[in-house]
Amino acid sequence: MKKYLFYVLSFFTLFVYAQDRQLSLAADVWPPFTDIDGEKSILSDLVQEALGRMKINSTIETMEFAKIFIEINSGRFDGSPALWISDEREKYYFFSKPYFYNQLILVGKKGSDVSAASFDELSGKKIGVINNYAYGDFDKNQEVEVVSDLSNQKNLENLLSDKIDYMLVDALLIQYMLTYQLNDVTEFLAIGKKPLLVKSSHLALGKHVQNAKIILEHFDEKIKEMIADESYNRILELNWIKADVDGDGKMELVLGGNKAGTSAPQNIYGLMHDNSYKEKNPPQRYYVDGKLYETWDNIPNNYKLDLVVDSTPSIEDTYIRLDFLD
């Protein structure tokens, strides 16, 4: 009964809050995850969709990454749509549960060895990362030289001009590049097969924000709804994702739309479990059109349709391209 009353009160509080104001959020230019208006911003879109379902209006302003924390701490902004957690940040912000996992792949120049399974294998190498992002301790390998710059574009330029040996790039950005810039990628780059580092993304709200914890609890529930109703897949433009849709602690493969392909999927972007990419036995259960199936063979044949791959970039897609040096 007490638990029921708590949820009733929290829902009422959230309803009142939603009528009072909107959330002002700040993010950096980090395509395709967060970006300025009119450009592909999948994490911004996910967050604003979830908040909209809570009847909370939200705005997202882009700025330099380091400035985000200054502006939130000053009270000008309420939080940020996509932050990685660190001990230092938890002093000032409340975080949602992870709603996305950035899976960082090792990328080198064509011909480079990108088979490293850990940073221990990269002693003496220069690794390009983005300024002020909370990457962590790189497996406590003091012999890895971390070189920070402003963006993936700058890191790519540093890589191709031999200023660094490797760069860390999100697997989803690589998927987009392989779709829209295949010739450039195959000519210039070597790409690792598995993530070296996985970081969870969260909606973060400053501790000064009224009812921040309640807002984040309801946000977590809306993300679950979005996975179940396939809007999560749609926003990320992914046919399959890996997530725990039934809350049993085990991962399922979740289909977006009604076309599963003619054979069981092989390359799945594991979104909701930071160690899932290390699993020797991948999940076998499938969530299709609101129903769970224990095996691929159990999925009705009317879903096993050929996928039509659209390799023509939309106007939004063109903004996430990286420019390769001549």
Write the layout of secondary structure elements.
Elements: H1 2-20, E1 23-27, H2 42-53, E2 58-62, H3 65-73, E3 79-83, E4 93-95, E5 100-109, E6 126-130, E7 145-149, H4 152-160, E8 166-170, H5 171-180, H6 182-188, E9 189-191, E10 197-206, H7 212-228, H8 231-236, E11 240-243, E12 252-255, E13 269-270, E14 286-288, E15 291-293, H9 315-318
Parallel strand pairs: 1-2, 6-7, 6-8, 11-13, 12-14
Antiparallel strand pairs: 3-10, 4-10, 5-8, 5-9, 5-10, 11-12, 14-15
Helix pairs in contact: 2-7
Question: How is this structure best summarized?
Answer:
The chain is an alpha/beta fold. The protein has helices at residues 2-20, 42-53, 65-73, 152-160, 171-180, 182-188, 212-228, 231-236, 315-318, and strands at residues 23-27, 58-62, 79-83, 93-95, 100-109, 126-130, 145-149, 166-170, 189-191, 197-206, 240-243, 252-255, 269-270, 286-288, 291-293. The strands form three sheets. Strands 3, 4, 5, 6, 7, 8, 9 and 10 form an eight-stranded mixed beta sheet that branches.
Characterize the structure shown:
This protein folds into three domains: 2-97 and 201-228, D-Maltodextrin-Binding Protein, domain 2; 101-198, Periplasmic binding protein-like II (D-Maltodextrin-Binding Protein, domain 2, 3-Layer(aba) Sandwich), CATH 3.40.190; 240-303, no CATH class. Helices cover 29% and strands 22% of the residues. The protein contains nine helices and 15 strands. The protein has helices at 2-20, 42-53, 65-73, 152-160, 171-180, 182-188, 212-228, 231-236, 315-318; strands at 23-27, 58-62, 79-83, 93-95, 100-109, 126-130, 145-149, 166-170, 189-191, 197-206, 240-243, 252-255, 269-270, 286-288, 291-293. Strands 3, 4, 5, 6, 7, 8, 9 and 10 form an eight-stranded mixed beta sheet that branches. Helix 2 links the parallel strand 1 and strand 2 (58-62). Helix 2 (42-53) packs across helix 7. The longest helix has 19 residues, at 2-20. The protein is globular. Mean pLDDT is 85; it is low at 2-9.
